[in-house]
Amino acid sequence: MKRLFILLMALLCGMPLFAQLTHTASGAVDQTAAALLKKASAKMSGTVSFSVTVVNLDADKKESFRQKVDILYNAPRYRVKTSGLEIYCDGRAVWQYNQPNKEVVVSPMSDTDDDITNPARLLANYSKSFRAKFIREENDGTAIVDLQPMKARSYHKIRLYINSKTGILKKMEQHNFDSSRGVYTISNFKNTKASDADFTFSTKSHPGVEVVDMR
Fold it and tell me: Which residues fall within 8 angstroms of residue 97, CB to CB, at 6 or more apart?
């Protein structure tokens, strides 16, 4: 708590952030990164909505894919809407609705769903799967934090861009071993209201849809 207070005072005074390390039995903990991630996670509390622009860059840094996704979050519940696909999660089950095929697949929510596809869970549970490292603070107040996976994955790090004053997550990057990179830019972040029905797929509202229940 004391370190967090010092960090907040530094932000208020316009001082640059710097990494603070605490050594524990499991290794060094970057306290600056931890404080930033805690602040960003707190912004995901309650119900929030935002848009994510997903861009895929190949090894030559050329854009090969772009998609806009609208997300509604009330952790652990979420709803994702994008072209041709809708995903609903009520905290227990996940409905993946393929609009062109008129098919919805229902599966149990995974306890390991903590990667870049679920930023709220990633921020809340990162310490179980990642080592966090504060990199730097940009001139515009954007703090950069890297998450390095403890176990082998298809990527070697997730880079987070966080507004150091507000705690709002601005951008995420997944850096893959083949030099490709997925970039997730967040916009229109706001607190909003939602009901339980917003996080559950309604078969009544989608007549003629085939349901494949994998639970």
Answer: 85, 86, 87, 88, 103, 104, 201, 206, 209
